Amino acid sequence: MFFNSTSWMDGAVGVSECGIPTAKKFDYVVPINSSGQWGTYWVHSHASGQYVDGLRAPVYDEEFTIVLGDWYHQEHTVLLKEFINVANPGDSGLIYFAQRGTYLGPKAGTNPTGPTSAVGFNENATLPFEPGKTYRLRIVNTAGFSAFFFWIDGHDMRIIEVDGTDVEESPIDLLSVTVAQRYSVLVTARNDTSSNWAIHANMDTDMFDTVPDTLNPNVTSSITYASSASTTDLGFVDAYHDVNDTGLVPVIVVAQPAATKTISLEFEFDTMDDGTNHALFNGVTYNSPLTPAILSELTLGPNATVESAYGPQSFVLNHMDVVDIVVKNADTGKHPFHIHGHKVQIVGRSIDYTSDDSTLNPPIEEGQVNPIRRDTIQVPAGQSATLRFVVDNPGAWFFHCHIEWHLQVGLAVQFIAAPEQAQQHFSQVPQELFDNCKAQGLPTSGNAAGFASTTDLRGLKLGPYLQNLGWHQRGIGAMAGCVLTAVFGMLTVVWYALGGAISEEEIEHEVREKIARKEKRGKLWGLLPKKN
């Protein structure tokens, strides 16, 4: 959602607010009628990994909403410590349905137990279809990590919406949905009610380092025509494939403008100088500022245009700039990137961004009539995507990987959009915003650390940094120690070879001394001497 002139309603801790402290509140106001937006969205916490623990929900109209997600048995505080190891997939896939503001119950004849027994999950979830009707299914991936492949046996799907952008109908047999993406599809019910049909939501296991034996990555629920009928499950598809979203055509035409600024962001993961694993854009990991960036933008006066005032990984953008974000994936897995406050046009993709072959790494095609617009984009391993947007929404906006574990270890930047226009036109910042910051001891003005300066960032967390693999002081000391140890070892070998070995009498003498010392210790700690 855009949150025009109300960037503080966006909910990103450190960028648009300080977060809501215990026993406090904050009213999020979304002026839907005046926003000019429609489509499928979802609300979720943007503090720590809270949405992985369940603080999430779709925002929907009266059609069926299909919620995909991953389920963990531990909370995010425990899981974060296991980041990037064999345990990184969720413990289970998750699918459930909603209609008219209510989660649909379990399948008839089943009796699940537990606190969520009133909701149908996975094999107990079912969509009630009536013959001949056409349904709009809004599919939302709310997972913390997992992407899904989604399809319905015995039914055709037509994509009509992508991340809030209406598109011309596009038939599809298999839908790939990465984290935070949304799709609307039309599905026409069969006229035959003799069978119910399986709905499949299979995890994209290519994103996992390993697939644990305990994980069933394939979740199956059903469309129900008659409760007494059996369910037809056709099993697996021949092959998985990702949606070619650049082939989708928005209903409302927006021509591609010419870019005036380019920000290149190459990302990777590495072990840092403190031994932890972090994500990096251009060799730098992101840390949340103490002062929310939106408050820095509004209180720094003329210094609000100085990037260093916002801390590392901050980009100040001029009003009505046309920006290309070139996201380059140097990692071995797929990653979903989400932008706040805007939609981007996907104006280019590269299969291998390091290649000189124009078929693998083609130049940007300028003058595109109506490229796809969305807010969440998947970038596969070794590939790149060029994302273009107009800086027409002043405020402070997050750009980050939506795999929660990757965001928590720094795969993010923040865009400071049109500071001068924000200072001129923003007003009525809610008092609750300031109160919540003060309750946590956080500043509400000045730079990222709370000072009226563009350079004084005392107290702001910086780093960790990439390991220095060159000849630094500690490395030289370690090398010197290794060399000395090797020299002593070689001298010992030479001494032994030249007759420096000890005699058998000397060996016997040393053994007797060790036995005597051992007996003496036994008498001391045993209090009484042992009797033979």
TrEMBL record:
InterPro entries referenced in this protein's UniProt entry, alphabetically: Cu-oxidase-like_N, Cu-oxidase_2nd, Cu-oxidase_C, Cu-oxidase_fam, Cu_oxidase_CS, Cu_oxidase_Cu_BS, Cupredoxin, CuRO_2_Fet3-like
SUPFAM superfamilies: Cupredoxins (SSF49503)
Residue ranges occupied by any Plastocyanin-like domain in the UniProt entry: 4-59, 62-225, 309-420
Gene Ontology molecular function: copper ion binding; ferroxidase activity
Gene3D superfamilies associated with the record: Cupredoxins - blue copper proteins
GO cellular component: high-affinity iron permease complex
Coiled coil: none
Record keywords: Copper, Disulfide bond, Glycoprotein, Membrane, Metal-binding, Oxidoreductase, Signal, Transmembrane, Transmembrane helix
GO biological process: cellular response to iron ion starvation; reductive iron assimilation
CDD domains in the cross-refs: CuRO_2_Fet3p_like, CuRO_3_Fet3p
PROSITE patterns to which the protein is assigned, alphabetical: MULTICOPPER_OXIDASE1, MULTICOPPER_OXIDASE2
Domain of life according to the entry: Eukaryota
Listed transmembrane segments: 476-498
Record carries keyword Membrane: yes
PANTHER family: IRON TRANSPORT MULTICOPPER OXIDASE FET3 (PTHR11709:SF361), MULTI-COPPER OXIDASE (PTHR11709)
Family: Belongs to the multicopper oxidase family.
Protein name, UniProt field: Ferroxidase
Lineage of the organism: Eukaryota, Fungi, Dikarya, Basidiomycota, Agaricomycotina
